[in-house]
Amino acid sequence: MISAQERIQATITENPIVVYMKGTAETPQCGFSAVVVQILKSLDVSFKDVNVLADPEIRQGIKDYSNWPTIPQLYVQGEFIGGCDIVREMHQAGELQDLLEQKGILAA
């Protein structure tokens, strides 16, 4: 059987942008997850959402994987970016857009 860590690694590797969140992009189950989804949608980028509430193994596994205690978690091309506050601050400063342009996800 594939471990939670292996499943997380595969998801992050196979998708340019991944959000580990409570709920789904269509129906976020917490305000912090909703903010991250809203920011990504405002940038018009597609992303993979992973509902940690649907899988307790992933819910704990992603915290171990990133060594970060909270959900949501944003990954861009395999790199852990941060949670809601970091994503919000990066977005407001224009840094998130710059990062996505550098990674070739957003057109400059």
Description:
With 108 residues, the protein is of the alpha+beta class. 48% of the residues lie in helices and 16% in strands. The protein is built from five helices and four strands; from the N terminus they run H-E-H-E-H-E-E-H-H. It has a four-stranded mixed β-sheet, sandwiched between helices. Helix 2 packs parallel to helix 4. The longest helix has 12 residues, at 31-42. The termini are far apart. The model has no long low-confidence stretch (mean pLDDT 97).
Low-pLDDT stretches: none
Principal-axis shape = globular
Radius of gyration: 13 Å
Name the average pLDDT. 97
Strand count, sense and barrel status of the largest sheet are: 4 strands, mixed
Count of individual helical segments: 5
Overall number of strands: 4
Q: Work out the strand percent.
A: 15-25%
Proportion of helical residues: 40-55%
The computed structural class is alpha+beta
Order of helices and strands: HEHEHEEHH
State the distance separating the first and last CA atoms: 42 Å
Please outline the helices and strands:
Blueprint (H helix, E strand, L loop, with lengths): L3 H11 L2 E5 L9 H12 L5 E4 L4 H11 L6 E4 L2 E4 L1 H10 L1 H8 L6
Parallel strand pairs: 1-2
Antiparallel strand pairs: 1-3, 3-4
Helix pairs in contact: 1-3, 2-4
